[in-house]
Write a structure and sequence with these properties.
Helices cover 33% and strands 25% of the residues. It has 5 helices and 11 strands, in the order E-E-H-H-H-E-E-H-E-E-E-E-H-E-E-E.
């Protein structure tokens, strides 16, 4: 890429002319920001406008790497809470994921408790959405953000095709990051696990950005007026598979 003016045969030291100094400094600067020799060779042959485009692309890659590293660091910091405890092997793992926007038929309602009335709302939503249903997991959004109030405002969500014209269909917001726990068995585990998620977020310098979701990957259903794939259905409570999702935002230092 840059031939030396002279090479010492005994030491291998390379010597450059004074007029090569600026090129050497450019190469060193480009290497310091993480560019490969192959990239630098291309950049040195390009015009300033092309150089700016390529550097912007490299900047974007570095930002993505930084975000990924920050996510891993956040996971590590949160893991200290339970990895150092004897019961860590049986604890539910917190994992991070993005949540895409979802088109769903929804029923939003305040209920006195999480009882049979919630099951009936899901059955009603499944029946109404049957003709436009997609094979995605139904979920419930806790609009109050809690399960401890005397009453709860919930939103039942059954995923449907994006072209659905059913009344009550709308798009549920996407989120870039959510802390999640997936568990098997009784729904009674949800409340303490949500508190674990919130505690995990707090310990890593983040905060909930929206009400949390309870997603039902495998569940019980009456299927009166609709049909679901067999693998979605649980024959007993022990076979339930549920995912808790808390969208979050990173707090500024």
């Amino acid at each position: 890429m840059l031939l030396p003016a002279q090479v010492n045969a005994e030491t291998g030291y390379r010597y450059y002319r004074g007029d090569q100094l600026m090129v050497i400094q450019r190469v060193r600067a480009l290497r310091d920001i993480g560019l490969s020799i192959a990239d630098i060779r291309i950049l040195l042959a390009q015009d300033p406008e092309e150089l700016s485009i390529r550097l912007r692309g490299h900047e974007q890659r570095l930002q993505e790497e930084l975000a990924a590293a920050a996510t891993r660091l956040r996971c590590l910091q949160g893991a200290f809470q339970w990895l150092t405890k004897p019961q860590w092997a049986t604890a539910s793992f917190v994992h991070l994921r993005s949540l895409p926007a979802i088109v769903a038929y929804t029923i939003r309602q305040r209920v006195p408790s999480l009882d049979q009335s919630v099951t009936e709302l899901f059955e009603e939503a499944e029946r109404r959405a049957a003709c436009d249903r997609t094979d995605d997991s139904p979920f419930m959004i806790f609009r109050d953000g809690t399960q401890s109030d005397d009453s709860l405002e919930i939103e039942i969500c059954v995923p449907v095709h994006s072209g659905s014209r059913l009344p009550g269909v709308h798009s549920i917001d996407a989120f870039a990051e959510a802390a999640c726990i997936t568990y098997a068995g009784s729904y009674s585990q949800s409340a303490p696990l949500v508190q674990r998620l919130l505690s995990w977020l707090n310990s890593t310098g983040a905060a909930a950005a929206a009400p949390y979701r309870e997603v039902y990957h495998r569940f019980g259903a009456d299927m009166r007026g609709y049909r679901l794939p067999r693998y979605r259905l649980a024959q007993s409570e022990a076979e339930f598979v549920t995912e808790l999702q808390v969208p979050f935002t990173r707090l500024q230092a």
